Amino acid sequence: MNIKALVEFLLGAVILTGCGEPKTAPENEKTETAPVSVQTVQNEALTPKKHTVDPTKPVMALTFDDGPNTTVTPRVLDALEKYDAVGTFFLIGDNINDESAEQVRRAYGMGCEIASHSLTHSYMDKMSADDIIAEMSETSKRIKDIIGVEPVFFRPPYIAVSTTMYENIDMPFICGFGVNDWVSSTTKEQRIDGVMDAAQDGAIILLHDFGNNYSTAMALDTIIPGLQEQGYQLVTVSELFEAKGKDPHSDEFRNKVISLVQ
How confident is the model at residue 31 (pLDDT cuts 50, 70, 90)? Predict the structure, then answer.
């Protein structure tokens, strides 16, 4: 084989194997984003761990917004598991991916409750009915793909609501006592004090497990045993309503953001 033929042969081999510099799309050329891929539960619901709630004893629900993720969410779950407690996680649909979905499975398997916090965490009170329905249905679908059941409860982003939301979201809207733990300047001690000051029978506590909120995760090592020492059972939102003999779907709670105690 002469030199020219050899060069032509090698060049052809490079092209066929896809080697060489990657092709860069022009700046004005639109590229499609691959859809989120979350492994499903193969038409079979996961079985959560069972635990007993005594309705004659005080109950509280720790809730966590803005997950799931692979940084803070597992630390929150570690704390709950360490003290044999459960919580309720209000998920942002767009935060669900193959990696974070493992934390959702873990939470549900521990007996925690999985709820909706919308798809994009936008101001839904400004949205049309169609956009609201799309936000909710896609989030519910992503959650069901992971654990086999759809969420029961919804926490509106920013606790901003509208008549259109009430008309198009068939879930109880859940509020809770916040301790400003979404603000980075709130110290771990302030988070602890805020929760302990808000503690009362039937209280729902609003916390956050977004990606860099380590102070809340660390505060739980004081909050959880502290509440348990005061006699509180830490339960899911569903268990809280059941223990208090309340139906969150009843007319009593229609068209309002629910907090059982003020």
Answer: very low
- Which of these is catalytic: 121, 181, 208, 209? 208
Structural domain range at position 183: 62-258
User: Is 19 part of any domain?
Assistant: no
The number of domains in the chain is 1
* pTM, full prediction: 0.84
The answer to whether 121 is a known catalytic residue is no
Distance CA 245, CA 45 (A): 27
Residue 2 included in any domain: no
Residue 245 is classified by DSSP as: T
**Rounded-to-integer distance, Cα 161 and Cα 168, Å:** 11
The per-residue pLDDT for 46 is 79
Query: Which H, E and C letters describe 110-140, residue by residue?
Result: CCCEEEECCCCCCCHHHCCHHHHHHHHHHHH
Where residue 115 falls (left for φ over 0; alpha for ψ -120 to 50; beta otherwise) is: beta
Residue 246: which CATH number?
Answer: 3.20.20.370
Residue 43 lies in a domain: no
Helix or strand (DSSP H, E) at 152: none
247 in active site? no
Residue 40, in any domain of the structure: no
pLDDT tens digit string along 110-121? 999 999 999 999
Q: How many Å apart are CA 6 and CA 162, to the nearest integer?
A: 72
